[in-house]
Amino acid sequence: MSLKSIKNKIKGVDKTHKVTKAMEAVSAVKMRKSQERALSGRPFAVAALNVLKRVGGSFDASAHPLVVVRPVEKICIVVVTSDKGLAGSLNSAVLKAVHDELARRGLPKESYEFICLGRKGYEHFAKRGFKVVHHAVNISDSVQHEDLEEVSALVANLYVGKRCDLALVVFTSFLSTFEHSAVVRTLLPLTPSEIEATVRDITPQKGRYAEDAEREPIETLRYEVEPDTETVLNELLPYLLRITVYHALLEAKASEHSSRMVAMKNASDKARDMSKDLRREFNKARQSLITREVSEIVGGIEAMR
């Protein structure tokens, strides 16, 4: 390999190192903001869960359309992935979790309807012939509860209209900066245990925010409801469904930025090591060239003598 080609490779690797280092820093900032946003909504989610527990202790809510349990013949799956790559195994883990769930259920392809939040999931299932009833891409990191009203309303309508007997959400749960896992949660029928698991997982197991939130006790009290039971449940249950989808999306965002930060860090380290190796090779080649030229000069002088 010539000195010029080695030098061009060194320049290319150094440029790549600058890009990956910048992407690592950006992802780190976005990851911290996503964690803070999820944690800031945790007290409200706990309060909403407390209300559901207390309402459930006051009267039987099992007859509500969003709570009633039916034999599972049709399933709606909300899949949360990223729009872009360069995030390690983030998206492949979510897609694998979905296919594992499909294999476990053993239902025909026509029994599934998908709602895809993120381009990677939408392209994957649309290409394989699954029915995608809704998809959203380019979802901002500053997602608000109201932004998911359409998705949660669609899931609720599919369940109430008996187009599905079970609604699931598959996303990446953020455990720590270097650890996250794909999880499958039940959206409908709505149960306190699933909401409680969502609230519990908002706080990461390790890292800066691991001890920021306390485990609030959830009490079960009996009290009267006004104006009436149906009105309260019609307001409360869809909102709890939206909270579950909202925090699943926040978890996925934090996991995406974390995974991309780690992937870019690894790429930066590899680029730095490759640059060192290329510089060493360049120095060896240049030294070899200098030695050869000196030998030729000395040989020419000896010949002239």
What does this protein structure show overall?
By secondary structure, the chain is α/β, with parallel strands linked by helices. It has two domains: 3-22 and 268-300; 28-261, 3-Layer(aba) Sandwich (Pyruvate Kinase, Chain: A, domain 1). It has seven helices and five strands. The chain has helices at 3-40, 42-58, 90-105, 119-127, 149-160, 192-201, 229-304, and strands at 75-80, 112-117, 131-136, 166-176, 179-188. The protein has a five-stranded mixed sheet with strand order 3-2-1-4-5, sandwiched between helices. Strand 4 (166-176) and strand 5 (179-188) form a beta hairpin. Helix 2 packs antiparallel against helix 7. The protein is elongated, with a radius of gyration of 28 Å.
Main features:
alpha/beta; 305 residues; Pyruvate Kinase, Chain: A, domain 1; single chain; five-stranded mixed β-sheet; 5 strands; 2 domains
Give a short overview.
The chain is of the alpha/beta class.
Break the fold down into its secondary structure elements and pairings:
Blueprint: H1 3-40, H2 42-58, E1 75-80, H3 90-105, E2 112-117, H4 119-127, E3 131-136, H5 149-160, E4 166-176, E5 179-188, H6 192-201, H7 229-304
Parallel strand pairs: 1-2, 1-4, 2-3
Antiparallel strand pairs: 4-5
Helix pairs in contact: 1-7, 2-6, 2-7, 5-7
CATH class of the largest domain, please? Answer: Alpha Beta
Spatial gap, N to C terminus:
35 Å
What structural category characterises the helix and strand content? Answer: alpha/beta
State the low-pLDDT regions, or none: 212-218
Q: Estimate the mean pLDDT confidence.
A: 81
The CATH architecture of the largest domain can be named as: 3-Layer(aba) Sandwich
> What gyration radius follows from the Cα positions, in whole Å?
28 Å
Q: How many strands?
A: 5
- Helix-strand pattern, N to C? HHEHEHEHEEHH
CATH topology of the largest domain: Pyruvate Kinase, Chain: A, domain 1
| Tally of individual domains | 2
CATH superfamily of the largest domain, by name, is ATP synthase, F1 complex, gamma subunit
